[in-house]
Write a structure and sequence with these properties.
127 residues; single chain
């Protein structure tokens, strides 16, 4: 089992940037495909970005492609989400998630594919 703790959320003006971090417990971080998902008030949780165990494969939702970048540092047990050119519609609680057992280059692009979740971090983008 892995425990995930997100950080880096906050309030930012439209056009600004934030970098989210997700620290994972344990010594098997490289065994997990990782992802970021978000949930806005009154909406379902939606996929944002995913990265494979190797870090070589990434995938993004169309709504964030070209603005967000997911990365991971397996030596630090951490996955990141760099968010640039933020828009008010990016306002949501952002969750880090992990999938154990994925193939080395596989990404998980649906919420139901993840086994473990963090508590979330609030991102608010003002217009």
């Amino acid at each position: 089992q892995v425990q995930l703790v997100e950080s880096g959320g906050g309030l930012v003006q439209a056009g600004g940037s934030l970098r989210l971090s997700c620290a994972a417990s344990g010594r098997t971080f490289s065994s997990y495909a990782m992802g970021w998902l978000r949930q806005a008030p009154g909406k379902e949780r939606e996929f944002v970005a995913a990265i494979s165990r190797s870090g070589l494969t990434t995938y993004y939702a169309d709504s964030v492609k070209g603005r967000f970048t997911i990365s991971r540092d397996n030596a630090k047990n951490t996955v990141y989400l760099q968010m640039n050119s933020l828009k008010p519609e990016d306002t949501a609680v952002y969750y880090c998630a992990a999938d154990r057992g994925a193939a080395y280059t596989r990404v998980v692009v649906v919420a139901t594919g993840y086994d473990y979740w963090g508590q979330g971090t609030q991102v608010t983008v003002s217009s």
